[in-house]
User: Fold this.
Amino acid sequence: MNSETVAYIRGVGNTKYVKKAERSVEALAVEAIDAAASDAGIPVSEIDGIIVYHGHIGTDEVIAQLALPDVKLRAIVDIGGASAVAALQMASLYVLGGVARNVILVRGIKGNSGPRKAQRKSFLPSQQFRTQLEYVAGCNTPSQRYALLCRRYMHEHGLTREHLAEIALAARWHANLNPDAQMYERTLELEEYLSGRVIADPYRLYDCCLESDGACAVIVSAQPGGDDQRPAVAILATEEGHADPPDDISNRDPFLHVGLEKAAARLWNAVSLGPDDMDAAMVYDCFTFEVAHQLEAAGFATPDTIGRLILEDGIRLGGKLPVNTHGGLLSEGHMVGLNHIVEATRQLRGECGPRQVPGARHIAVTGWGNLGDGSITILGRHDGPA
Amino acid sequence: MDLRDVPAPDLDDPLFQGYWAGTAKGKLILPRCSGCERMNWPPRAMCPHCRSLKFEWEEHRPSGTLFSWTVVGRATAPGYREVPYTVGIIALDDAPVRLMGTVVGVEPDDIAMDMPLSARFTKAGSSLEFTVVQWGPALSRPVSSI
Assistant:
């Protein structure tokens, strides 16, 4: 979607992300939603649309816990880690179409102290391929599947452990500047990164995202919510794309093709901005390599330049393209990418303190999930009256 | 590995029935579209290339090369509690098809991109009711094992 009329991110909120929350998932979600409504300057009762994700707090639970009086629609966007960004598209259409006024995107889970990823129900598509092809071969986690992509990419394009290391270390360095991050007080040095135990080689411990207890929320509205003190954040364009085929990685041709390529091509075609105009990028970082893969698929680099972007041009604050200034899933917390949208919003408002990207005006946010579905949005700072 | 703990897939699924019947006999049998004669893998009800709904089962040479792999260090999959083990994607020699399977008989450090591999047909499941394809260093002819 892209038009002269855009929707806005009116408010954002989150809990601290921790290994073990001493509260219920519902209590975590209430805190995040209250914070987002307060940030938007609206009473919670004005939330009238909800978009959630599998395995996290559900829509009816949100309605019940917040005693929302008149929710007009609810939805689950279910393309894994690509869902949060893709949901911005849906929410924008809802509010611009007049179906609802304030649509809230919510994630809330005890993902670390509760059942872990491998123990939770799989929501992947085409479950027969999982049982017929993958489980019989001892493959049943995202780390194992995506390690197969990573290995091949390293072979074809010369990506090395040095590149993967910088993605992990940059994320941790950013998280050390973010008091809400699960790894705020835990530094990570190269030596420790390299000695991480093997999870699914090439992925070692620090190549893998965290699992987290916590919640976050984003309110989308046709009302900008900014004022003289605070710029509004516009959702300038959003696209999602699906790999060919979306439900199996083993037989794609080319093997490394992903849905984000399609989404990004449509996105850049729809706006008068390009990758070089982005002041930062929040990239879905379930594992280190997926950051490199998506930076390439989204047009920030080519297979020939991705290594240089990471190691020389720089993906840390102060580099050419600061990536995941909150610490991402690798070091802030795993809120399935909704936390990436929260961070982009705060960066564009200039609220990020020691980790602020100076003068940030445009930030791209990507999502990746379900074996290679992709999504991408451009958020833009909107100064003055809308 | 105790492959008795590997969850049995639906061996009667019409899209996979010929494959499992083949592995039980130590053969690699895959579906080919009857309309455009392209391979239909992973098997789908309708050929994505020509929209034909018909396919035929066809025997293939159980050999290929290693296209990608991961050495699993953290056990998560039922039947695969002993780590490390290796999951590979194998590109078949005689058809444009890649199969996922464990790579056996090679130390992790000795695994190399594009190395030639051949199939081992190994019984699995709580009553050893199905046969999985594992891949090891190339042999002159395939072997069956129990």
